[in-house]
Amino acid sequence: MRLKHAGLNSKNNWKKNKSMIQTEVINDDTSRVILENLEDCRSFAQSLAKSLAPNLPRTVGLVGTLGAGKTQLVKFLAQALGAHPEDVISPTFVLVHPIDTHPQIYHIDAYRIHDSDEFLELGIEELFEQQAITIIEWADRFVECMPKNTLWIELACEDPQSQRRTVLLRNLSKLPDVQDQLRHSYD
Length: 187
Fold this sequence. Notes:
The protein has a domain at 42-161: P-loop containing nucleotide triphosphate hydrolases (Rossmann fold, 3-Layer(aba) Sandwich), CATH 3.40.50. Strands 1-2-3-9-8-4-7-6-5 form a 9-stranded mixed β-sheet, covered by helices on one side. Helix 1 crosses helix 2 (70-80) and helix 1 packs across helix 5. It is of the alpha/beta class. The chain has helices at residues 38-52, 70-80, 116-121, 124-129, 176-186; strands at 15-16, 22-25, 31-35, 58-63, 96-99, 105-109, 133-137, 151-156, 165-170.
């Protein structure tokens, strides 16, 4: 399954593919993706994995309310990189959960972290330098601690009973290789 790209100059910036994933390029820095169901989320995560795996290290800041699908997206991303589904859990009480993937994923849940000092005490800056993908849920609470080239992914759902999610990808202009790979997967 491939995502469809909506060009910047098109009258209607929205495009759909066979599985109904809609994408829109908002500007050089931001794209929007609409996921109708879990299969769309899995397909999106596979495209995302292909774009993140080269040129390590990578940092992803996940933003969204409780139940928005942050951990589910990490699970699908990790599976696309070789993890077993049961290896991906919400690291709420562990804080840093390494996942055996290729490349390695470090999954961090910052929900229970109180301040920037506590966040940095996790050794997070060392993880940012590892040849790995570091994914941080609730990263928006510590923007000042995040690398400048963080890929920001915001998940939103209007109806918690629905599987439909809106995904905003931000900071793409600082990640031209990721941006190019994702946009090629839209074509």
